[in-house]
Amino acid sequence: MLSGLPAPALALALVAGVLLDLWLGEARRWHPLVGFGRLASALERRLNRGRLRIVRGLLAWMLAVLPLSVLAWLACRDGGAAVHALLLYVGIGLRSLRDHTLPIHAALVGGDLDTARSLTARIVSRDTRQAGETDLAKAGAESLLENGNDAVFGTLFWFLVGGGAGVVLFRLANTLDAMWGYRNERFNLFGRVAARVDDVLNYVPARLTALAYVLLAERGRLRAWRCWRAQAPAWSSPNAGPVMASGAGALGVQLGGAAVYDGVTEARPPLGNGPDACADDILRAWRLVWRTTLLWVAVAGGALLLLDRVIHA
Amino acid sequence: MLDHGGNLRAARQRFGGTDWIDLSTGINPHGYPAPAPAPDAWRRLPEPDPALVRAACDYYGAPQLLPVAGTQAAIQALPRLRAELAGPARVTVAAPSYAEHAHHWSRHGHVMRQVAYDALDGFVAASDVVVVVNPNNPTGATVAPATLLDWAARLAARGGWLVVDEAFGDTARLLSVAGHADRPGLIVLRSVGKFFGLAGLRLGFVGAETTLLAALDDLLGPWAVSGPAQDIASAALRDHGWQHATLDRLARDGARMRALLAGHGINSGVDAHGTPLFHWWAEPRAEAFHEHMARRAIWVRLFPGSARGIRIGLPGTESEWRRVEQALQQWNDT
Fold it and tell me: Which residue in chain B has the smallest CA separation from A246?
């Protein structure tokens, strides 16, 4: 383990970090990622110009991520399990995921389409002005499945690998991908490193998440597995593909397909199969993410304690 | 719903006029003279008639067949059946082709891509289902049976399907794989609409493994094919005299159409493609040609998309042939 903590302490920090997140939720006044976003924007403004954009992108990535990760590592080394747990709490977004999606479900169930639209617009980049229940339910469920990986399971994975510093590294890299990882004129070269690093960091967690979605499928594990196999390769992102296809298959509903971005309808590949998504599928997607979290914490905690026994046997 | 040929009502609405010649399909203009239905045909529920299946198996040389209400019924049901049996599939549909295949295989969670005819071989390995129309409608492109059987075997080894739509297979019997339709993974679609000129009957056949046919039968439900359709098709499928005469006639008429088109410089001197029942060429001024013919009450099929071109069927009478020739002459003069 790179965290430097003994296995039982890491297990304890894992549980503590998740509980802190569930108890306190997202920091409202001063979220560290907001400050980081400003830093990243400033770096991008200065460096995203001239020639050698890929190299400049690499430099910007290192300047943004590495000092903070080293600081986190030093703090963990000196502060022990409590600091690890604190950084996991800051990095993990389980409660925030719930707080951003369940109100959409509530609004849809209450028949308040306008509120559901504006709530959905906060979490996805697509155009929700004309969206109906199916579109909104689809957006909510897709967001839960995909961010379940980015905000929860990827974070847990890198916590287990590198403790609090692993969480910081992963979350900062993930945020940079969200800011810079676009194939447009501005970011195609500059954002290349940010996108590739995120692909690499997420490769294993995404597949473990997809596997958990298959194992916890409500409506047929086989279906979820087949959706993963058939649909993931067609999805534009190599890591979101397995996560969203297996998740949609696990829910037994139709996700993916056409969605409106900036007034233009984009034909995306299908995800899952079965009836169209409805409001309750947001709730079901949340339950899937929640049960996947429990599975991860239980398996990881159990494995750490087992590891400790083996070492001290 | 997708647009198809045979929509004379739309033609009349748009261009007015009467006395239309419908060349927008590949349906034999000299269809089988259907016998009058049995006196109780309209009263009785249509039980499945083993005589129909025997006649069809003899005619198509197939080991086993399921009658369906037109191959369209099977084209719609197969993607659903596949999803129910084996979940979402990676589906490759040959293109350009009869659009209903791609349309329905892009549903039920399947990931469908369209691939050019000559590139198909490279996509078999990465597909769970491959769909090919042979000979192709509208281009007339063909795939050798040995190639098809090889694809079917490779797909079947992974539980995959090869769907071969032989709707225009009657005039190209050597291309047919219907005789192998009991092989795992091979599904063959046959139609009595085109060659027999019985499109209004809504009758087709599916050849496949017994278990698959049973599942498809179950999905389509009872009384899928009307009693009169069964009777008429039984007679047509057994009438070898009519079939031979029709093969000769279609070969003659097909050659005549080919010569007529070539004589009018269609497709810049390169031969138009197709089967005896229809010809197709990539026409750079497809919309103008379509309208030119429509103004003369001749309805041809315009393909505006990737297969940009014109498909033209066979005229039925000498006066229709003359009108088509005249219209082509006038097109050349413009």
Answer: B88
Query: How many other β-carbons are positioned within 10 Å of the β-carbon of residue B4?
Result: 13
* Cis ω before B138 (30° cut-off from 0): yes
Element (H, E) at A119: helix A113-123
* A291 at B interface, C-beta within 8 A: no
B109 with A234: Cβ contact below 8 A: no
Q: How high is the ipTM of this complex?
A: 0.71
Amino acid at A111: G
Question: How does pLDDT run along chain A (313 residues), one tens digit per residue?
Answer: 577 788 888 999 999 999 999 998 876 666 777 788 889 999 988 888 888 889 999 999 999 999 999 999 999 888 889 999 999 998 898 999 999 999 999 999 999 999 999 999 988 888 888 888 999 999 999 999 999 998 899 999 999 999 999 999 999 999 999 899 888 888 889 999 999 999 999 999 999 999 999 999 976 889 899 999 999 999 988 999 999 999 999 999 999 988 888 778 888 899 998 899 999 999 999 999 999 999 999 999 999 889 888 887 6
Partner B contacted by A227 (CB < 8 A): yes
A226 has a chain B CB within 8 A of its CB: yes
Q: Could you tell me if A249 lies within 8 Å of chain B, comparing CB atoms?
A: yes
Domains and CATH numbers, chain B: 8-31+241-333 (3.90.1150.10), 50-238 (3.40.640.10)
Domain ranges, ordered by start, for chain A: 7-312
| Chain B residues lying within 8 Å of A222, measured CB to CB | 87
Chain A residues in contact with B86 by the CB 8 A cut-off are 226
Using the Cβ of A268 and the Cβ atoms of chain B, whether some distance falls under 8 Å is answered with no
Chain A residues inside the 8 Å CB shell of B113? 234
Question: B298-299 and B21-22: which strand pairing?
Answer: parallel
Burial class (CB in 10 A: 0-12, 13-18, 19+), B46: middle
Question: Please, are residues B175 and B134 in contact by the beta-carbon 8 Å criterion?
Answer: yes
What DSSP state is assigned to residue B301?
Answer: E
